Fold this protein.
Amino acid sequence: MNVRRYSCVFLAVLLTACAGAPQADGDFYTVRRGDTLIGLGRSFGQNYRDLAAWNKISDKDDIEVGQVLRIRPPPSGAPISRARPAHSTESGATASAAVRERRAAEAKKDAAPPATAAPSVAEAERLNWMWPAQGKLTPTTDRNLKGIDILGTSSQPIWAAEAGKVTYAGRGIRGYGNMIIIRHSRTLLSVYAHNKSIMVKEGQTVNRGQQIAEMGDTDSSTVKLYFEIRSNGKPINPTPLLPKPHG
C-alpha cells in the first residue's frame, strides 16, 4: 500500500513537471531552480547527452541556475559558449554573502504556500477528445487514482485521445507498467498506463486517433488501460469530456 501511495506521489510530481514544461527562447533556455539536464532533454525532445555535447558539459549534473543552454542543434561550425550566472564573477566574501542571501530568499519562497492554478475544465472542453480504447468502462477502485479503467483484450490498439507531444514513454514508475504521457497544451496532459507495448518515443508529436500502444496488463492483474486527464497537474474527470458511447 505504501509502495502504491509512493508511486502515485511520484506520478503526480512527474505530471506536474510535464504540465509546467520549460519554455525555450528560440534555440536557448535559461536554467531555473530544480532543472536537470536529463529533465530538460525530455522536455525539449532531446537526448541529454546531445545537450551536454552542444554545451560542452562533461558532467550531466554540472548546470547552474541562470546558465544559458543551447537546446537545439547548433549550426554547423558555429562556436558554442556556456554562459554562467553573473554571480560567478564575484569574489571572496562578497560572493559568499550573495549566495547565502539568495539561498535564504529561496528558502522563504519555498516555505510559502504555492500558488497552484486550479484545474481548467473549460480549456479541456475546447479540445476534441476521443476514447483512447474500446472496451468496458469501469471506475478505478484505487482512491489514489483519479482516472478510469477501460477493460479489453491483450494487444488491442490504444489511441491518442487528442493530438499532442509525448513527454514520457517508459516503465519507470512502479504500479503503472508501460506508461505514456502526452502533453496537449501548457496545462493539459493525458496518461495511458498498463500497456503491453509502447509504439511512440519521448519528444514525438502524435495525432488524435494515432495508435500509441497495445493494451496489456503490465503491473496490473487484468488486461486494461488506465486513462487519466490532468489540468495544471491536477486530475479532472475524463468521462464528461469523451463522446457518449453508442447504444
Q: What stands out?
A: The first strand starts at residue 28 and ends at 30. Residues 92-111 form the longest helix (20 residues).
